[in-house]
Recover the amino acids of this structure.
């Protein structure tokens, strides 16, 4: 089995992205550590660094988790999604530095292996306010590590998309662990209510965005009729509802289908990109190929296959057009099956299969 | 649909279309401003840091009399008079106590090198173990602590080394695991008692026989506890002889101010 990885080179866009990320991290840490030393002459740099790295990491985690739903709500955020992997790796390095520094500071040079000490030094599992918060941070870090280590497309191809996706959904488990890590750790030592409010606000923002984005999509899914013809085709929308070279995303039999119109043709394919499950229906048809909005993988709308030398294949669906209405058969064809596009006839809108 | 949504951009393209670019730059700049604002707000809202100094990297010479009990210490004559001495607790580098270095050397005059750790009311030397050298074979009688009375006190058990200045914070929940590690490594435990008029009193904890309390107190570290025992004084140090069975947790009441 061979897989072709599209070399995505460095370009101006990517450099700007990384520059902004780096600038953000440096400014944040600079203001945190510098401001801390200025405000509290009694403070130690180690503590300020540990805290600065931890807070920079959790802030960046919120940014990362926001980009996905923001893109679903407004396509203009899409360029931020591309290259999100660099944000993820930056986040991981910050969290790793925070964790490693904490382990050295609080557990090294003692009578026990530092990693064992993280897990065993606080035994108050029977208490809420005393609960060991450092193992929670360590568990989150392990999950983040697995995600960072498998973020390359190589793993996506070899783990298969569903496994990879499940692994990457673990980010919400890890996020929950981080929330607990902070709530049961720093918040138990600090007195300012501001920290608690901020942490709660962050969680409401992250989960709220997901819910709003999901709700918007399910409303779009529901906004179509359920007419079914004798051969099992479902009426999904009118031809006029699909702008040229773009798609309408519909939900059929629990599966999201992108119905594309390009020129006088209509084709329906799975909405899920083979690369990283990007929403193909939010892409365009450029030079005869569907272009995924996330990283630009291309597919022939009629066959669901990537143009050579690439070999990605997505499922296709049978379509027909009648009286200006588009009908799609909810039964997916095996990935890469050729389906003749339905032709939109002028004025009358009559067409065959 | 917003006008700019008709611009299509895929990440591999060289640059974003202008309206889209402006939209994104506004968001990114806004985010950077928010990040700086948060950094400042978060750092300012921290609980103030305790006083206390660890002269990291500075090694000084000391000469004085070793004390083995109730906790390892060095008594150094003050310049002003023969009767007045400064007591420095002695610990080893890292999260280790100095017991093995002073064992059997109670009352011996020694010279040593080490790094100072101090906060108001208590000072400590992190011993450079190889530097410890004997100045005389004679042993002075260090005497026993002077018992004062039986008391019950409320406070927090911490490890003396971090609390005196090696770590900020050297107490409370976020420091708990480290305190456990230090106490387990032989650093003497201290009970920190908040004084109503401000500041803290620091009391060394030992077992009823005057020896180290050992691992049985690790469970009670860095949270509010009440414990009873016999209070005594030796030189500048307050000492409470107690027993793990005389320690009880106090349910955390409203968090005390800084
Ligand atoms: C091995 C893993 C980890 C360890 C040992 C660890 C340890 C600690 C410790 C000891 C503190 C309290 C510091 C203080 O209040 O002075 C802390 C706080 C914090 N940690 Fe972690 N942590 C780990 C992983 C993580 C991860 C993965 C995140 C993810 C973002 C994280 C985020 C934070 C945050 C936001 C705080 C509060 C700010 C602060 O006081 O530092 N930690 N952590
Ligand atoms: S998800 Fe990456 S190109 Fe489609």
């Amino acid at each position: 089995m061979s897989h072709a990885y599209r070399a995505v080179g460095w370009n101006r866009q990517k450099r700007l992205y990384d520059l902004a990320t780096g600038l953000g991290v440096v400014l944040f840490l600079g203001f945190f550590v510098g401001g801390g030393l200025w405000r509290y002459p009694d403070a130690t740099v180690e503590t300020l660094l540990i805290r600065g790295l931890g807070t920079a990491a959790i802030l960046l985690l919120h940014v990362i988790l926001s980009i996905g739903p923001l893109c679903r709500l407004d396509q203009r955020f899409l360029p931020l999604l591309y290259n999100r992997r660099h944000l993820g790796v930056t986040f991981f390095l910050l969290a790793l530095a925070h964790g490693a520094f904490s382990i050295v500071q609080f557990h090294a040079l003692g009578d026990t292996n530092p990693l064992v000490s993280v897990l065993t030094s606080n035994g108050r599992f029977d208490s809420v306010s005393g609960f060991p918060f450092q193992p929670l941070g360590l568990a989150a870090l392990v999950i983040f590590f697995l995600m960072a280590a498998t973020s390359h497309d190589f793993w996506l191809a070899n783990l298969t998309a569903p496994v990879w996706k499940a692994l990457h959904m673990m980010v919400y488990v890890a996020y929950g662990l981080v929330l607990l890590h902070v709530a049961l750790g720093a918040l138990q030592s600090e007195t300012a209510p501001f920290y608690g409010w901020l942490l709660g606000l962050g969680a409401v923002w992250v989960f709220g965005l997901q819910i709003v984005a999901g709700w918007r999509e399910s409303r779009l899914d529901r906004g179509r009729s359920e007419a079914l013809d004798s051969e099992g085709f479902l009426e999904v929308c009118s031809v006029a509802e699909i702008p040229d070279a773009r798609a309408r995303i519909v939900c059929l039999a629990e599966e999201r289908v992108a119905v594309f119109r390009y020129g006088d043709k209509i084709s329906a394919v799975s909405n899920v990109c083979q690369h990283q499950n990007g929403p193909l229906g939010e892409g365009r048809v450029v030079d005869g190929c569907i272009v995924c909005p996330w990283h630009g993988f291309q597919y022939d709308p009629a066959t669901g296959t990537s143009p050579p030398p690439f070999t990605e294949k997505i499922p296709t669906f049978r379509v027909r057009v009648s009286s200006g209405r588009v009908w799609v058969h909810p039964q997916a064809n095996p990935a890469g099956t050729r389906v003749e596009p339905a032709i939109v006839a002028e004025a009358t809108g009559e067409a065959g299969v | 649909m917003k006008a700019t949504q008709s611009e299509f951009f895929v990440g591999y393209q060289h640059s974003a279309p202008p309206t889209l670019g402006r939209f994104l730059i506004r968001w990114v700049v806004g985010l950077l401003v928010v990040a700086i604002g948060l950094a400042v707000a978060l750092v300012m809202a921290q609980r103030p840091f305790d006083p206390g100094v660890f002269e990291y990297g500075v090694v000084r010479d000391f000469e004085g009399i070793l004390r083995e009990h109730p906790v390892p210490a060095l008594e150094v004559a003050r310049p002003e008079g023969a009767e007045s001495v400064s007591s420095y607790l002695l610990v080893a580098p890292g999260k280790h106590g100095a017991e093995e270095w002073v064992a059997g050397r109670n009352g011996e005059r020694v010279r040593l090198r080490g790094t100072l750790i101090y906060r108001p009311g208590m000072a400590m030397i992190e011993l450079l173990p190889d530097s410890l050298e004997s100045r005389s074979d004679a042993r002075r009688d260090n005497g026993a602590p002077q018992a004062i009375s039986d008391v019950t006190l409320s406070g927090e058990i911490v490890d003396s080394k971090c609390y005196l200045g090696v770590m900020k914070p050297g107490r409370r929940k976020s420091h708990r695991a480290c305190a456990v590690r230090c106490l387990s490594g032989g650093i003497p435990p201290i009970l920190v008692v908040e004084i109503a008029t401000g500041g803290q009193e620091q009391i060394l904890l030992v077992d009823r026989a005057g020896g180290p309390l050992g691992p049985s107190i690790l469970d009670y570290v860095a949270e509010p506890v009440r414990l009873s025992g016999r209070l005594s004084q030796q030189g500048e140090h307050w000492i409470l002889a107690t027993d793990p069975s005389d320690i009880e947790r106090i349910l955390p009441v409203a968090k005390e101010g800084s």
